[in-house]
Amino acid sequence: MFNNLSEKLDKALHSLKGHGKINEVNVAETLKEVRRALLDADVNFKIAKQFTNSVKEKAIGQDVLTTLNPGQLMVKIVKDELTELMGGDTVGINLGGSPTVILMSGLQGSGKTTFSGKLANYLKNKKTKQVLLVGCDVYRPAAINQLQVVGEQIGVEVYAEVGNQNPVEISQNAIKHAKANGKNVVIIDTAGRLAVDEEMMTEISNIHKAVNPNETLFVVDSMTGQDAVNTAKAFNDVLNFDGVVLTKLDGDTRGGAALSIKSVVDKPIKFIGTGEKMDAIDVFHPNRMADRILGMGDVVSLVERAQEQYDEAEARKLQKKIAKNQFGFDDFLNQIQQIKKMGSMKDLVGMIPGAGKALKDVDIDDDAFKGIEAIIFSMTPEERSKPSVINASRKKRIAKGSGTSVQEVNQLMKQFDQMSKMMKMMQGGGGKRMMQMMRGMR
Predict the structure, then answer these.
(1) How far apart, in Å, do the first and last CA atoms of the chain sit?
(2) CATH 3.40.50.300 residue ranges in the chain?
(3) Is residue 174 within 8 Å of residue 147, measured between CB atoms?
């Protein structure tokens, strides 16, 4: 996400390298490029100008700190300003009420129905909530069908009334149903709009008044840039919503919506959608997003995703296997599955400091593990548990069964062997020995 913006900001800030002091001349040159990068990202002109003026005020005349050069100091100032521009603090979702009622709004095609499912899945799994999805799009023929498919996929009940064309009635009846059936969160998926028209805005306003939601979220397709910001303002004038959801951040996103929307509507971005899977949802952290835009990665989010997939009991079993030298390909396969659950590979790489920049021209496929999995699935149970039995003839059979070459099988075997040795070294006092070895290499 934001690859183009990140590249241009990096280029602009790089121009300060080598100067002993930040002054008006080199700041003006740098900020001219920063403003151009923001405009290319479809940020509103006034907001881009305010942003660079604010950076200039904080940068002019600041002596370089002992541990910083001018480029690093400017990066810190830009990072702080980007964080403020996107909202400053992380704002969570309001889960008050009995039940909590969440009203979803947005234009047609913004990803609202899919995100309703993602949010239901998030609240069910992370907040242990009993969720009810409500289909109030009575105009689009496949809308309720789509919501029912999503609901079945994540194991969440969907409330719909076939034949009822009154979304206000449906939403009120759904809340009664939720109370009677022990549901403590109700997510109402309203009809998307092709444009901001008076009739449809009146309808969602009526739903809002009838159910008095604890949380009203406006879903924005982040790929639409400044148009999304203008639409958000029109919706906010009618609904006075509580927060924004940015979807499709895994696509060719220029970043204008994420960087402008808080300044225009003064409402926080609460969630982002980063893929098509139901678990591709993240709480929006302005400071972490600023780090990612500036190529600093997002190690905290990466660790959090890893912790979500961490199973203590399985980890203990794996530790015992490693200690007894019984780590096999089934265990290796299990580790791959856990990595895949963390999100798209491109998104994960972007969280590693420096990796996004280094691999910006590399096409990172989510099916990167497909060849490895095919090789492992072509092994017998004995070969998976005891890799040492795999000889030349077995390698030929495995290669043929997986549609790969013997060289690829050999490469996997080598990588597996290196990984096994590394994991063995980390057991007991191995970690200490490794640190000693690393110190000796300095």
Answers:
(1) 36
(2) 100-296
(3) no
The pTM for the full model equals 0.67
| 303 vs 240, more confident | 240
**Is 3-85 in CATH node 3.30.420.40?**
no
Intervals of CATH 1.20.120.140 along the chain:
3-85
| Nearest partner of 124 among 245, 270, 249, 278, judged by Cα | 278
Cα–Cα distances in angstroms (integers) from residue 242 to residues 62, 103, 213, 230, 232, in the given order: 38, 10, 10, 17, 12
- Architecture per CATH, 100-296: 3-Layer(aba) Sandwich (3.40)
User: Strand pairing partners for 220?
Assistant: 246
CA nearest neighbour of 172 among 136, 140, 137: 136
Identify the three-state secondary structure at position 365: coil
| pLDDT above 60 for 41 | yes
What fold does the segment set 306-440 form as a domain?
A: 434 Repressor (Amino-terminal Domain) (1.10.260)
Q: Identify the band that residue 153 occupies on the pLDDT scale cut at 50, 70 and 90.
A: very high
Least confident of 51-60, 183-192, 275-284, 417-426: 417-426
